Amino acid sequence: MIELTPNIHMFLRDDWGARRPDFNRLEKQGWDAHEAFLHHSDDSNAEAINHLEEQFAKMRSIQDFHMDVRGWADIGYHFVVMQPYGDIPYARIFQGRGRNLVPAAQQDHNTGTLAVCVVGDFRTDHLMDNTRYALEVLLDRYNDALRTLGGHGDVFPTECPGSNIRSAIPTIAGAVNLAVYKR
Ligand SMILES: [Zn+2]
Q1: Cα 89 to ligand 1 centre (Å)
Q2: Each residue's pLDDT tens digit, 110-160
Q3: φ, ψ dihedrals at 84, nearest 5°
Q4: How many CB atoms lie within 10 A of CB 174?
Q5: 169 CA distance to ligand 1 centroid (A)?
Q6: Could you tell me which of 109, 168, 110, 108 has the C-alpha nearest to residue 139?
């Protein structure tokens, strides 16, 4: 676990028990992704996932789904963020695919991007201020090469990441000096 700030913690692959990826099929892109894209997991019961062990299990289930059902080499996203439901005071960040690897997240628009998913259905779920802050902390940390922030729907016909994340993109981008992605 890494303390990005005293309250915003990132849990690493070993913390949540990630499976070994299919290294032969992972493609390197280096460390200079210029475009970050936000996603939601489209889970209708995200508020039931609030303790650390449940969040670790959620990470394993996302990875299993991406590898076993989608047929991808690893979990598709570079990072996953979970909101602070229940008695959990702060949003948590979980490490996904290696940041120097091409993600599997925005079909036909993956190379050179950073893919971040928030667990929930943000057509209806409210993006909490603390979750927004966690996204800002995360993007700021990896901001050296980043230039733009967008939503999945900017590059693919999908409602992802949901209107409640989409409407927060200008605020988040402004907080970390990124431009809002324009197609
Ligand atoms: Zn998406």
Answers
A1: 26
A2: 999 999 999 999 999 999 999 999 999 999 998 789 999 999 999 999 999
A3: -85, 75
A4: 13
A5: 14
A6: 168
Expressed in angstroms and rounded, the spacing between residue 105 Cα and the centre of ligand 1 is: 6
Measured in Å, residue 88 CA sits from the centre of ligand 1 at 25
H or E element that contains 67: none
Task: Please give the model's pTM, rounded to 2 decimal places.
Answer: 0.97
Phi and psi (nearest 5°) for 32? -115, 45
CA distance 69 to 112: 25
**From ligand 1's centre to the CA of 62, what distance in Å?**
13
In the reported structure, the alpha carbon of residue 106 is separated from the centroid of ligand 1 by a whole-number distance in angstroms of: 7
Quickly list DSSP for 98-160.
-TTB--SSSTT--TTEEEEEESS-TTTS---HHHHHHHHHHHHHT-SS--EEEEGGGTSSS-T
Q: Is 174 strand, coil or helix?
A: helix
